[in-house]
Every structure is written in structure tokens, then in C-alpha cells.
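Hey team,

Filing this mostly as a record. A colleague (T.K.) asked me to run one chain through the structure pipeline before their review meeting, and I want the input and output archived in the tracker in case anyone asks later how it was produced. No errors, nothing strange. Just documentation.

Input sequence:
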Amino acid sequence: MRDHAMTPTLLSLPLPASGQLRAFVEAPVGSALALAIADTASRHEGLVLVIVADSHAAHALEAELGLFVEAGLPIVHFPDWETLPYDVFSPHPDIVSMRVETLFRLPQLARGILVAPVQTLLQRLPPKKFIHGESLALKLGQKLDLEVERRRLDAAG
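Output structure:
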């Protein structure tokens, strides 16, 4: 079991003190940031939220994290809509799908790294009940239990 009170190494970031939910630090420069985040996430028993300036910074950080993160530790991207508030067109369907997939996965993640642009965190989100009640996720070859699915859809309204 990992120790939350573990002293940070030269390449890691400090974890929140006992009883605290967050810790603020000055970011290391270049790829050292991804290395420090990967080390911190490997020591932490929960989800690590990394807030970046924009979508470009999120994609760059995710690519670097892929080099340093231990196997099995998920890196989850919560994309921005990439539209302005009063645009007359909708976000690209791929972005909508990625956001719904991320919202669907989040309650099931015990550990990992969530990368989100700051603008994304300023937007309202649907309740968990809506995401899980209005979603149907199937995998190729998966058997669908119609009775369980009927009860889930009934519960969702």
C-alpha cells in the first residue's frame, strides 16, 4: 500500500496533507512536469486532477505522460467543447462522445490521472444519474441481458 505521507522525491510533487483534498505547487519546467505528475500519481491512492491552460497543453501533457506513467494507471482526457459560448454551431460529435465517455468512466476510476483544460472545468455538467441512465455501452461480442437493460431503462425514466 502506498503511503500518503511519503516525502516527495526530487522528481515528484507533494501530495495533500492528511485531511486536505488538494495541494498547490509550482510546476516544473518541460517534460519534468509529466515525470513529476506520473510519479505523484503512482504514489497516490486516488485520482489526480491536472488542470492545464488549454486543449493544446492537454494533448501535449498527455503525450508526455504516456512515456512516464506505470502500466495500468489510466490517463483520462476531459476535452473542452472547442466552441465559443455563443457560437451558432454545435461541438464536433467526436468531442461530445469523448466528454460523455469520460463522464461515464470517472465514477469507476479509483486511481489515475485526469487532464482537463481550465475552460472545461468552468462549464456545467449533467448529473451522474443522467449520464449512467442515458448511456448504453456495449462491446463487440458482449451478451446483452435484456431484463437487466429493461430495468435500467425503466429506472432512468
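Quick notes for T.K.: The first strand starts at residue 47 and ends at 52. Residues 32-125 form a domain with the Rossmann fold fold (CATH 3.40.50).
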